[in-house]
Amino acid sequence: MIKNKGFFLVLIALLFFGNYSISQNTSNRGRSKITALSKVNPNNYNKWYAGLGAQHIFVHSDLRNFGVNDRKGEFSYGFYAYGGIMFNSIIGLEAKVHFNDIYGEPQQWADTYDVRYTPLGLDEVYFEGESVGIRLLGVFNLSNIAPSGKRYQRKWNFAFYAGIGYHQYTSKLYSLETEEELSGPNFQTNELREDWASSWYLPVEFGVSYRLNRRVDIEFRPALNINHEDDFDAAISDKQNFELFFTTSLGAVYKFGDKRKHLKWTNPYDEALIELGDEKDEFEIKDIDGDGVIDELDKDNYTPKGVKVYGDGTSIDSDGDQTPDYKDKCPFKKGKPYLEGCPPTKDTDGDSVFDDVDDCPTIPGPKSNNGCPTIPESVLKELNYIAKNIYFETARAKIKPRSYGDLTRIAEILQQFPNVRFYVDGHTDNVGNDTYNLALSRRRAAAVVDFLENKGVDGRQLESRGFGESRPIEANSSAGGRQLNRRVEINLINPDQQ
Question: Which of 20, 228, 334, 476 has CA 20 to 30 A from 53's CA?
Answer without folding.
Answer: 228
